[in-house]
Specification:
Blueprint: E1 5-8, H1 12-23, E2 28-31, H2 36-41, E3 47-48, H3 50-58, H4 63-68, E4 70-72, E5 74-79, E6 82-87, H5 88-91, E7 97-99, H6 102-116, E8 119-121, E9 125-130, E10 138-143, E11 146-151, E12 154-157, H7 164-167, E13 175-190, E14 200-203, E15 209-213, E16 219-225, H8 236-246, H9 249-254, E17 260-274, E18 277-278, E19 281-283, E20 289-290, H10 298-319, H11 328-350, H12 358-373, H13 375-386
Parallel strand pairs: 1-2, 1-12, 2-8, 5-14, 12-19
Antiparallel strand pairs: 3-7, 4-7, 5-6, 9-10, 10-11, 13-16, 13-17, 14-15, 15-16, 17-20, 18-19
The structure holds adenosine-5-diphosphoribose and P-hydroxybenzoic acid.
EC number: 1.14.13.2
Domain FAD-binding: 2-343
Organism: Pseudomonas knackmussii (strain DSM 6978 / CCUG 54928 / LMG 23759 / B13)
């Protein structure tokens, strides 16, 4: 079998890249280890930046998002019971974000792919990358017990943090930057109306909480928990009690509770590898970097990587601009590091670190208070939250 671009992984990165290439007439094949249902079963963040929305529109997968997504032009920060609204629209020159779950984005992209006739193989095993540094790379994999060989021009490694793509690059060719945070997020999804019409990121003595949503009838809440916590030890009742204690009083009084649809604990990590290219292999999305979820940058960063690689490939095939391939890593990383900084900063400001001393806590609280007292500080938070501009590919 032969294609132009082999895409490993059918998460948001692989599906979005595949769909954009499809529409540009660049042939591609997607290889995914799991079933479509498994991929759709993963519950992740749900805030889309303007650039991500625009890219989904360009991919022809935005109809439901535009109809059902909730436009948010602000969010709240809570510091020890005091509510502070960040007016995103005012401080970012009119930009907003869209609350629309990653699961729904993935579902829409899967449907768009099916409609476009793009070839995808789900439930593949033993995916291996070959001759990545040569002119003629290829991928081998097993599907229903048969071995398949896929020849291609380029490989997009969109297979997430645990994928095979990054692991196919010799360790001495990559530099890794990493921070593992000393806590996780316990998430709960419920069919209850959100406690507030905007997201609430709350810092409290008892630890951080986030009150988010998927729709006007479905809420998503998170609690900072210790790394040793087990989800089995968190009954719904215990979760709601703890959330109430971490919310400002008026919000806690309004909180509507109900049975959980899903509950899970996720660790928090910042992670980047450099470079994001090895020969004809390009790392995209979580395969090359991870952010902690504070600020909801994960999916949006994946979309900005896709934007860069897609525009480069269009120029490679359309105008013979093979010189641009060498620029992917540098272009993508420039924006990645800024989102890494913002996610790390939000995480540092809002969480309680078990090992931090009283002086450090004062410094962090003062830093956040200082940002909030200043127009420049609020602008800085808002422009990062709505998403910095995509890098130009020229
Ligand atoms: N072969 C084939 N597919 C694989 C392999 C493999 N060896 N390893 C992993 N995959 C698949 C996974 O099953 C998954 O469906 O690659 C996909 C990667 O998807 P994500 O982990 O969602 O990564 P990405 O598409 O880059 O999305 C980034 O989504 O996952 C969130 O937190 C993440 O929000 C961020 C964004
Ligand atoms: C979510 O709704 O799941 C969510 C929203 C904002 C974040 C993280 C997660 O910063």
């Amino acid at each position: 079998m032969k294609t132009q671009v082999a895409i490993i992984g059918a998460g948001p990165s692989g599906l979005l890249l595949g769909q954009l290439l499809q529409r540009a007439g660049i042939d591609n094949v997607i290889l995914e280890r799991q079933t479509p249902d498994y991929v759709l079963g993963r519950i992740r963040a749900g805030v889309l930046e303007q650039g991500t929305m625009d890219l989904l529109r360009e991919a022809g997968a935005s109809q439901r998002m535009d109809a059902e997504g909730l436009v948010h032009d602000g969010f709240e920060l809570v510091l020890d019971g005091r509510r502070e609204r960040i007016d995103l629209k005012r401080h970012s020159g009119g930009k907003t974000v869209m609350v629309y779950g990653q699961t729904e984005v993935t579902r829409d992209l899967m449907q768009a792919r099916e409609a476009s006739g793009g070839l995808s193989f789900y439930e593949t095993s033993d995916v291996q990358l070959h001759d990545v540094q040569g002119e003629k790379p290829y991928v081998t994999f097993s599907k229903d017990g048969e071995s398949v060989r896929l020849d291609c021009d380029y490989i997009a490694g969109c297979d997430g943090f645990h994928g095979v793509s990054r692991q196919s690059i010799p360790a001495d060719k990559l530099k890794t930057y990493e921070r593992v945070y000393p806590f996780g997020w316990l998430g709960l999804l419920s069919d209850t109306p959100p406690v507030n019409h905007e997201l609430i990121y709350a810092s409290s003595e008892r630890g951080f909480s986030l009150s988010s949503m998927r729709s006007n009838t479905r809420s998503r809440y998170y609690l900072q928990v210790g790394l040793d916590e087990k989800v089995e030890d968190w009954s719904d009742e215990r979760f709601w009690d703890e959330l109430k204690r971490r919310l400002p009083e008026d919000a806690a009084a309004r909180l509507v509770t109900g049975p959980s649809l899903e509950k899970s604990i996720a660790p928090l990590r910042s992670f980047v590898v450099e470079p994001l290219q090895f020969g004809r292999l390009f790392l995209v999305g979580d395969a090359g970097h991870i952010v902690p979820p504070t600020g909801a940058k994960g999916l949006n960063l994946a979309a900005s990587d896709v934007n860069s690689l897609y525009r480069i490939l269009v120029k490679v095939y359309g105008e013979g601009r093979v010189d641009l391939l060498e620029r992917y890593s540098e272009l993508a990383l420039r924006r990645i590091w800024k989102a890494e900084r913002f996610s790390w900063w939000m995480t540092s400001m809002l969480h309680r670190f078990p090992d931090s001393d009283a002086f450090t806590r004062k410094m962090l609280d003062t830093e956040l208070a200082y940002y909030l007292e200043s127009e420049a500080g609020r602008t800085c938070i808002a422009e990062n939250y709505v998403g910095l501009p995509f890098e130009e590919v020229a």
